[in-house]
Amino acid sequence: MLAGDWLTIILSTIIIAYLFQTLWSHEHAAKVQIRIGNKIHAAYDLNQQRDIIVPGPIGDAMIHIRQGKVRFAKSPCHNQYCVHQGWLTHSGQVAICLPNQISLELIGAQKPYDSLNY
Amino acid sequence: MQIQTNIDDHRIAKLAAFAIALHMIEAVVPSPLPGVKPGIANIVTLYVLLQYDFATAAWVSILRVFASSLLLGQFMSPAFALSLSGALLSLSMLWAAQHLPRRYFSAITLSILAAFAHIAGQLIVVRLWLIPHASVAYLIPIFAVAALFFGFINGLITAKLLYNKTQLPEPDQPAPPLP
Amino acid sequence: MRKWPLRLAVIAVIAIGIFSFRTLKQEPLYHTQSYVFGTLVDISIYGETEDRAKLLADHVLQDFQALHNQLHAWKPVSKDQASELGTLNIAFASGRKPITISPQLTAILTDAAALSLQSQGLFNPAIGHLISTWGFQRDEFSAVNIDDAAIKALVKIKPGMSDIVIQHNMVYSTNPNVKLDLGGYAKGYALDMAAGYLRQQQVKNALINIGGNIIAIGQHGDKPWRVGIQHPRKPAAIATLALLDGWAIGTSGDYQRYFMLDSKRYCHIIDPRSGYPVQHTQAVTVLIPPQRNAGVLSDVASKPIFIAAAEDKASTAARLGIQYFMVIDQQSNISVSKALAQRLDWLDPEVNNNSHVKLVTLP
What ranges make up the beta strands (E) of chain A? Predict the structure, then answer.
């Protein structure tokens, strides 16, 4: 390994880091971000089949992740609005359980909007 | 009619055959990611460039691309286009980089540079023809890492071969007389 | 070969350095989500350091919590102390004796009264008893047995903002059945309050979302803030639009707070004239251009339009000075004012086929 080789390797590494930063600034794998209260609890890849239990102030909620989609399956809340939201499939979609302070949000390559009016 | 061949032709043919063999071996081994291959046949190209000259290396490389694709039944297919574009850009890079001072830059640098040029050529074909979609950009960093990694390894192997080569006689020349 | 570990270490250090540099250069967007005001609050601040943004957002959230405690229609601040509004409601119920209220509440009531008048009583924060009868003055609500007689009685009494007399900071009501519920006003008021505070703190770019009502300051970096409008029946956005500096947007929907009874939907928006929840409309969205009380209008103005009958919706909007509005009726037909239609980007594929969208021109 000669001096110039080191230079090549270092420059290549810098270029690669730059490429990752510019081209991968958006997460291209679809994920669901689960928040409890004002904290991010976890983020899961949507490309799997998985059941997750999320603990909230009034009880545990059951979240189902299936290939490319996610939903509230069971919730300890009274009105079950969150369960009725059904499957979330596109980036930016949100399901919220207000009484239990749990929110599911799909994060993808591009979010079509910064905030949702409802 | 007989085509007159000289020793250079023989040499090119032998080396090209070797490169083709390496390419075929690699074609059989599955790769974890489509398009990401160690490219061991490029070792031959680089070795030839450093041992002989650019023209010979170019011949070996192009012959390898055409012959391999014919043998694999991929002639004129997208795989052939990718192989050819990679080879052409890679050769262009080597043509420019071969003048880098050998005191500071070994086969490793040339191999890495050639590898980057190779993936660049392939990504251009992919973007313009095969997958004309902006999301191809997501592949670039992955391929770049592979180029650096395999470029480094191939360059190291080539350097080692050249180092050992200086200890051994030319394959198609008679052994030097015993002292 | 001996030199390899050192050289490898050098590469490792450089690589770590590069990736650390990468994390430092993250986009300067601070985003926090909180459960305050009995609902989901979303604050985005762009262009400030994380520490400063957090400080500002925390201050805003604290203000919200204080306002929430002050104006809560039914929850007391603590065991012995009702909210300021709660205390006022108790005073109203017990007779005409005036009590003192804070200047802030005075201003709120005066403003609410003016808006109620402007909407010809469709926006009526004085019908707290009616809302309570329908069970919506609880954190969790379910189907109630509909007491038609009680409802009719409450409607007959006609509690309204005009029953409230304000002199300086002293208030009393001529109608003991007035019970204030500022649910349709408080979120908008909080938006204006937060936006005012952030602007005063020299924040150039922010987006505040309180329970779906949104107000914008500046832009998201080099492009405007983009907001989605919830589809009334799907967990997705039906359209998006750019929310420019100072603009506010609000939606009233029958999907936000409701219960089902015998396959019929009863939502929390009650028509003061009939005493019954509105059932002909799914959602109304209003977009408010920059003005002093853009937030309040984004909250208040959607209700009268929601309540008004289909043929009166456009005139109701005009009366309130609302130029940008959208109505989705119970059959999912969409009517959009021309001014708003120009700004919307439809996301829903059904709408893109224009099967259910109608353009309304204002009178």
Answer: 31-36, 39-45, 50-56, 59-66, 69-74, 94-97, 102-107, 115-117
